[in-house]
Amino acid sequence: MASDSTRSPTLSVSKGPSTIADPRGARFLTLGIALVVLALLALFVWGMGRRGATVGSVPTTLRAAPGFQLTLFDQRQFTLDQTKGMPLIVNFWASWCIPCEDEAAVLQSASVRSANRIQFVGVDVQDTDIDAQRFLRQFGVTYPNGRDVNGTISIDYGMSGVPETYFIRADGRIQRKWAGPLTSTQLESFMAEVLSP
């Protein structure tokens, strides 16, 4: 029998951190990245399609328009009561909204042509003052506009997206609600509706 002194030395291996990645962790990481990419792609496709989103009249009953007070970008106050006896067009918009760009010139032109017959007001939503005022300058919008800072006006009117426009008769009742951008032909037709007795 061999003594302890004649035994061959044993090789000891230290157990440090493994350099081989856990295959389950790699799969989860790959799956997570794929899901993020798919979500961003879906958001992109949805955003690109917004210009062609549902457009048209939204069924509404002839009801009293909710009263509101709006601080305009020039710091004046606008209230629904100021327009009693004159039809009002309330347009909800945002600077980041591509269809809002499509209708900006149409609304501005109509507001100038009908200045003594119909009042226009723009309600900017989910936006910043800087971006909103840049939008108004870019498209030469001169009719009253202000920001719905806390979303109260949007909620009271039942706004579901931008652009959205409400046509209010001289007696204060909502005649029509339109979702999506307006063409000049549509706008002229709806203006005629609110002007009719």
Describe this entry's structure for a reader.
This protein has 197 residues and is an alpha+beta fold. The chain has 2 domains: 24-52; 54-195, 3-Layer(aba) Sandwich (Glutaredoxin), CATH 3.40.30.10. 36% of the residues lie in helices and 19% in strands. Strands 1, 2, 5, 6, 7, 8 and 9 form a 7-stranded mixed beta sheet that branches. Strands 3-4 form a two-stranded antiparallel sheet. The longest helix has 26 residues, at 23-48. It starts with 22 loop residues before the first helix and ends with a helix. The model is unreliable at 40-52 (pLDDT under 50).
Quickly list its features.
2 domains; two-stranded antiparallel ribbon; 36% helix; 197 residues; Glutaredoxin; alpha+beta; single chain; seven-stranded mixed β-sheet
Task: Spell out the blueprint of helices and strands.
Elements: H1 23-48, E1 56-58, E2 63-64, E3 69-71, E4 77-79, E5 88-93, H2 98-113, E6 119-124, H3 129-138, E7 145-147, H4 152-157, E8 164-168, E9 173-179, H5 184-195
Parallel strand pairs: 5-6, 6-7
Antiparallel strand pairs: 1-9, 2-9, 3-4, 5-8, 8-9
The CATH superfamily of the largest domain turns out to be Glutaredoxin
Order of helices and strands: HEEEEEHEHEHEEH
Number of domains: 2
CATH class of the largest domain: Alpha Beta
Termini separation comes to: 121 Å
In the CATH hierarchy, the architecture of the largest domain is 3-Layer(aba) Sandwich
- Structural class, by secondary structure, is alpha+beta
Query: Which residues sit in consecutive blocks of at least 5 with pLDDT less than 50?
Result: 40-52
Number of helices: 5
Q: Describe the global form.
A: elongated
